[in-house]
Amino acid sequence: MATARRIVFRADASSSIGFGHVARIAALIEEAVTTGDEPIAMFGGDVPAVASWARDRKLTCAAKPWTADLVMRAAEELRARAVVIDGRGLAAELAPRLAARKIKTVVVDDHGGLSLAVDAVVNHNVHAPTLAHSYPEARCRLLGRKYLLLRRDIRRFTRGACRPRRSCSSPGPARLSRERRRDGEPQGLRARSFRARPGR
Question: In what order do the strands lie in the sheet with 140-143?
Answer without folding.
Answer: 62-63, 38-45, 6-13, 82-86, 104-108, 120-123, 140-143
